[in-house]
Amino acid sequence: MMGWLILQFVDVINPILELPDWFGKVVLVLLVIIFPITLMMTWAFELTPEGIKKTKEIDKEVSILKSTGQKINYLIIGFLVLVIGVQFWSNSPSSDMDLIVTENSIAVLPFVNMSGNDNDQYFSDGLSEELLTVLSKIPELKVSGRTSSFSFRGQNQDLKAIGETLGVNHILEGSVRKQGEKVRISVQLIRTSDGFNVWSETFDRLLKDIFVVQEDIANAISDNLAIELDLAVTPTLISNRTENMKVYDLYLESKMLMSRRGVENLSKALTLLNQATKLEPEYATAWGLLAQAHTLAYYYHDIESTLTGMYLGEEAARRALDIDSTSSLAHGALGDILKDKYHWKEAEEQYLLALQFDPKNTEARSQYSQLLLRTGKFSEALPYTETSVILDPLGTIYNLASGTVLHSLNRTEEGLYYFDKSIEIAGDSSFFPYGVRLIAGIKEDEIEKTQGYLTRLIIHNKTNEPMFFNSDLVNAMADSETLNAYLIKIVGYYDKNPQEVNADNIFAGIVYAALAAKINNYDLALNFLEKEAGLNIENVNHDALANHWSPVFAPIQNSPRFKQIRTRYGMPSYWRTNGWPDYCQPVSNQDFECLMEEI
Question: Are 367 and 336 a contacting pair, CB within 8 Å?
Fold first, then answer.
């Protein structure tokens, strides 16, 4: 009887505590082994204060068989509790989730511009980033991503602390002095554990030899790391060579501008890259970067419309691939555009090609994980988001994506950790983490916390006089009836003006839907979701699709209206050819079901 109860107990707690599959099997085997022994001991022997005696020799009135049996039961249960506790502890996130320093690893800090001209900053940044790219081609070497490495610009921090933050044991730092047609590059490779200078050198070259010096530096680093870390010596290759230094100059400056985002920077980057492709029409690298610039620019409607950006971006990406079919940059950019067109299968093919030609293309890896998030494939996305955070631990989007995946897989504490980290990194420079965090936790969060996230999100409204997405909405959230009335008022207006649902803020539509679901008005929530699905491509929030899998929408995941929304986005046909997501499965050739456990 006790064995049966133990097995039932294990069956119940197994999914809750995410115990490994082998746990139940081990318990069963132990019970099978223990049962006959216990049975024999029970029938033939009894444990007494004087030792083990045969049962037939003991008077029934003084027998302690019952209490002995209870002690054995307690012992078994105690053992199970101990094992469960250990497993639970091992599955719980650590208090600080620190990165483990990888033995063969390096970060390239932004080189200091010593040219005496701030306008040359792009050149030293560009050289640093190009070296980062070249070093990433060494198979056994982990190279910290640009976002994280460049976050230490101008900071006089201890290199050991930087190494611990980025999870690397070597740092490359240097300076660049550019004067006319000459350049002096000073570089040093430092071990973070003790500050030891492994290697340093100064290169005096003509600008026309910049690719040679990049290769010299990368090979020197490779050779020294090979000695220190017992790596295989790998000759590095520069894949973006051009004979036209003016074109390369435009390329470097554009990369710097794109990394800074913003309307002014992206507009200038597009101008410079268009110049570069005119000066050298067969330079695949410039065409690939131009395609990527368009994928960023069409999110800023002040630069170009979505349709224009998609058309020009796809044209540039395909031109790059005509010149160089192995361009990881171009494949990734093309994947971004196809993803935003809801061409899921074709986009996935492009991302996988991008990663095939450059396994350390962090941007392609991140964007592919975004595709998987939007289509509900969280288990598939997990290794991509985990790797992105390891390689670029201070990247806002990488932490946010990791939080979304973990939270959606019911690893709630870990998910919230990465949400909080992305918010900490972003500050008020980006609205995106606040919107995602608000929706992800809206089911369980106290109303004051949700109001706080919404207040931070409103700061980034598209208009100075928002019609509904304002402090009135924040105040209405304090009372369910008031909020319901306010949301009904909003939906009444958008019934007549459906294309304006995101006019105040790109997150407005999905936030309205989440708030309606929070107060259990699911018809109203679906109304908002349908309006979002009906938006033209200029007004839609592409990333809101990942929020459709939030726990707050669990009760309506399998409703006919929600299934129709997913069909409108082309997901079922993608699922049927490329695999079903975590919470959906086919029920016939024409139908499917999506079921999520309600929290």
Answer: yes
Please work out, in degrees rounded to the nearest 5, the angle formed at the alpha carbon of residue 154 by the alpha carbons of 153 and 160. 75
Among 469, 468, 472, 495, which Cα is nearest to 482's? 472
Distances in Å between the Cα of 441 and the Cα atoms of 23, 224, 241, 376 are 31, 48, 48, 17
pLDDT at residue 118, as a whole number: 73
How many whole angstroms separate alpha carbon 141 and alpha carbon 384?
Answer: 18
Q: Give kind and range of the element (H or E) at residue 593.
A: strand 592-594
Q: What is the pLDDT of residue 163?
A: 87
Closest CA to 563 of 540, 582, 585, 544: 585
| DSSP notation for 273-341 | HHHHHHH-TT-HHHHHHHHHHHHHHTTSTTT--HHHHHHHHHHHHHHHHHH-TT-HHHHHHHHHHHHHT
pLDDT at 318: 97
Contacts of 22 (CB under 8 A, 6+ apart): none
Q: β-strand 142-143 against 197-206: which pairing, if any?
A: unpaired
Continuous segment of H or E residues that includes residue 585: strand 584-586
In angstroms, the CA 372 to CA 581 distance is 9
With the CA atoms of 301, 302, 308 and 314 taken in that order, what torsion angle do they form, in degrees rounded to the nearest 10? -80
Helix (H, G, I), strand (E, B) or coil at 240: coil
Residue 187 near residue 205 (C-beta atoms within 8 A):
no
Q: Is 176 within 8 Å of 185 (Cβ atoms)?
A: yes
State the DSSP H helix or E strand holding residue 25, giving kind and residue range, or none if neither.
helix 21-44
Which tokens go with 157?
């921090």
**DSSP-assigned letter for residue 218:** H
What's the full length of the chain, in residues? 599
Per the rule left: phi > 0, alpha: psi between -120 and 50, beta: everything else, 398 is: alpha
| pLDDT computed for residue 122 by the predictor | 76
Q: What CA–CA distance (Å, rounded) separates 553 from 555? A: 6
- Residue identified by tokens 């000066």 is 279
Using DSSP bridges, classify how beta strands 142-143 and 105-108 pair: parallel, antiparallel or unpaired.
parallel
Cα–Cα distance for residue pair 125/120, rounded to 1 Å: 9
Q: Are 509 and 502 in contact (CB under 8 A)?
A: yes
The predicted pLDDT at position 186 comes to 86
**Residue ranges of the chain with pLDDT lower than 70?**
1-103, 155, 210-215, 218, 222, 224-243, 598-599
Contacts 24+ apart (CB under 8 A), 91-98: 91/17, 91/18, 92/413, 93/413, 93/414, 93/417, 97/414, 97/417, 97/421, 98/164
Residue 205 is inside which H or E element, if any? strand 197-206
- Strands 170-179 and 112-113, by their bridges, are parallel
Residue owning tokens 């509904």? 468
Question: Alpha-carbon torsion 482, 484, 487, 489, what sign?
Answer: negative
Instruction: List beta partners, residue 281.
Output: none
Quick one: which of 349, 354, 343, 365 has its CA closest to 320?
Answer: 354
Vertex 257 angle, CA 255 and 260, to 5°: 110
Q: How far apart are the C-alpha atoms of 89 and 5, rounded to whole Å? A: 24
State the residue for tokens 């620019």: 297
What pLDDT does residue 36 have?
A: 57
Task: For CA atoms 501, 507, 508, 514, give the dihedral sign.
Answer: positive
Q: Is 173 helix (H, G, I), strand (E, B) or coil?
A: strand
pTM of the entire predicted model? 0.75
